[in-house]
Q: What sequence folds into this?
């Protein structure tokens, strides 16, 4: 036990060099994974439902965009063949003064009609980490996303104030690494009241009595489900044809839109990933090969003592595997600590890193394989010279 | 034990011109003999020892260890022949810095398939014989030059090789330590090993079976 530790101590700077290369690779990879999870989550959401909004412009935000979607339109949509359910929704920015572009940090209020089951095929329910989900009949209660809760130190039993109204937090969602992490979910009646409180124009219109609106007409959109065996895009087109005055998003179109809007980030991350791969890989391979070249004299001595190329190769391979494994583990550990520290302090509960098992395993396997390959290459070079030459060069 | 016939070796100068270092060396050393080769610096003494010990290839000639023509062997077989037949003692000791004195000695056994308690016991005995057993857990950097060379000697003889090649073994030692090492080499010859020592020190020739001078790439009897 003591001897292997001593051997590794002899490689201390090599291990440090490898650890730094792997840490960079893992950290950049974790940021990339984080964005990928966000985009995939959004994609999964939009492909799980048909999103409908009223025609025009309004406060609706998030996956639906457009004007008011009255109750009559919702009833009409429910009558369209192939539709399995329609859930009225109110989606509002928590802070209307902030930009409403979809960003990683956008916080939204989402009011859902709890009398209708969630029609989204991929999100029948949202996973609750603590407390409970919203129930029909709830009032002035909220279920908050993981990042939202973390950024405000909220837990079950806590309270948040929205437009001067206090809401009790009855549940906190699991971290999903996508939009719901920053949601405040409330009953739809409460969301409608929030909309009226936030939107001066809407208040003025309602007060004027010029339009016949009831509370059930105040919807920013609806999530529409389709019956089994139906093509969602075909159902969406049917809604577009048969229900006037609505904006209907085809799931496949919305998915394409989402992907094209995030294409720049995806390309950027792919570039960063490739760079991390090349720079980290080159650094690791160079460090490992240099460590072997440095020991050229030792190899000369061992060959003078009778070591064959095969024996030396096995020895170097075993050592390089141990060194890259330790260096790789140290690098992964360093990246994890760095990620947690940044997420916990600088990013203030906005998770910037996602250390998936595939990333950690892949980085470790990559470093071990590359380290072994570099060591094998260097060993091949070292044993290609005579033992006498190896001793001369190393002395 | 050792027979060399017509060994030739050239190096290429930076200008590309070949420099002939060995120009047809003939040498035969029997078990129990101690042969000393002298010559000025740059005469090719170390090259001769390297070629005799299979540490580098000659350009021509034949080399035999006992009945085996080792100059015709492939890489792996030459490595095995080195481990089986030859023990080396270098001027600069060439101990591995990351290993203790005892581990350095035991390194000689690793590549010839020897291990276990008996080998370890033999290594301790050898260290005791040369007076450094109390330093066996020390690293080379913690040993004096004389102590390092004694450890290197133990490494060279651990496998009882029939051929011992020593390249200026006392070059970095004071007189007292030099005498210990030369005495130990003579002892190996008395025990039956063929010993070839390259040295420019006159006292190395004391007790030698034969004394040669390397001049112009060939060995001349002195």
A:
């Amino acid at each position: 036990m003591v001897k292997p530790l001593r051997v590794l101590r002899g490689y201390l700077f090599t291990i440090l060099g490898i650890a730094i290369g792997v840490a960079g690779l893992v950290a950049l990879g974790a940021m990339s994974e984080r964005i990928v999870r966000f985009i995939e989550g959004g994609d999964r959401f939009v492909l799980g439902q048909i999103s409908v909004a009223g025609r025009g412009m309004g406060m609706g935000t998030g996956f639906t965009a457009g004007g008011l979607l009255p109750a009559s339109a919702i009833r009409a949509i429910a009558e369209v063949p192939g539709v399995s359910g329609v859930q009225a929704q109110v989606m509002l920015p928590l802070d209307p003064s902030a930009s409403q572009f979809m960003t990683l940090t956008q916080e939204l209020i989402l009011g859902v009609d709890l009398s209708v089951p969630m029609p989204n095929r991929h999100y029948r329910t949202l996973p609750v980490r603590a407390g409970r989900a919203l129930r029909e009949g709830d009032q002035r209660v909220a279920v908050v996303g993981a990042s939202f809760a973390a950024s405000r130190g909220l837990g079950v039993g806590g309270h948040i104030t929205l437009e001067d109204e206090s809401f009790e937090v009855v549940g906190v969602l699991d971290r999903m690494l996508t939009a719901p992490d920053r949601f405040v979910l409330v009953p739809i009646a409460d969301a409608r009241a929030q909309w009226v409180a936030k939107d001066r124009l809407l208040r003025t219109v309602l007060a004027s009595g010029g339009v016949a609106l009831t509370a059930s007409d105040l919807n920013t959109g609806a999530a529409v489900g389709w019956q089994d065996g139906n093509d969602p895009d075909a159902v969406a087109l049917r809604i577009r044809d048969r229900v006037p005055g609505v904006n209907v998003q085809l799931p496949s179109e919305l998915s394409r839109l989402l992907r094209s809007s995030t294409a720049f980030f995806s390309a950027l991350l792919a570039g960063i990933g490739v760079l991390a791969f090349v720079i980290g890989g080159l650094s690791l391979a160079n460090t490992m090969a240099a460590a072997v070249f440095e020991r050229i004299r030792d190899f000369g001595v061992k060959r003078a003592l009778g070591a064959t190329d095969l024996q030396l190769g096995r020895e170097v391979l075993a050592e390089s595997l141990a060194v890259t494994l330790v260096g790789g583990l140290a690098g992964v550990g360093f990246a994890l600590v760095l990620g947690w520290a940044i997420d916990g302090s600088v990013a203030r509960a906005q998770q910037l890193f996602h250390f998936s098992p595939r990333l950690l395993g892949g980085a470790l396997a990559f470093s071990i394989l590359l380290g072994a390959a570099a060591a094998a290459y260097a060993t091949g070079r070292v044993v290609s010279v005579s033992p006498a030459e190896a001793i001369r060069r190393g002395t | 034990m050792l027979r060399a016939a017509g060994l030739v070796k050239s190096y290429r100068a930076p200008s590309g011109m070949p420099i002939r270092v060995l120009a047809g060396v003939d040498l035969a050393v029997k078990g129990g003999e101690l042969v000393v080769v002298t010559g000025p610096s740059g005469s090719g003494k170390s090259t001769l020892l390297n070629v005799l010990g299979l540490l580098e290839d000659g350009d021509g000639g034949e080399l035999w260890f006992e009945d085996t023509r080792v100059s015709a062997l492939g890489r792996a077989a030459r490595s095995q022949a080195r481990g089986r037949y030859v023990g080396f003692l270098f001027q600069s000791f060439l101990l591995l810095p990351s290993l203790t004195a005892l581990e350095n000695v035991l390194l000689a056994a690793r590549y010839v398939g020897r291990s276990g308690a008996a080998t370890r016991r033999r290594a301790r005995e050898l260290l005791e014989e040369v007076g450094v057993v109390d330093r066996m857990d020390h690293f080379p950097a913690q040993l004096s030059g004389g102590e390092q060379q004694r450890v290197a000697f133990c490494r060279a003889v651990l496998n009882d090789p029939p051929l011992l090649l020593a390249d200026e073994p006392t070059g970095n030692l004071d007189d007292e330590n030099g005498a210990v090492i030369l005495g130990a080499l003579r002892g190996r010859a008395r025990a039956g090993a063929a010993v070839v020592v390259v040295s420019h020190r006159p006292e190395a020739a004391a007790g030698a079976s034969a004394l040669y001078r390397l001049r112009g790439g060939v060995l001349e009897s002195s």
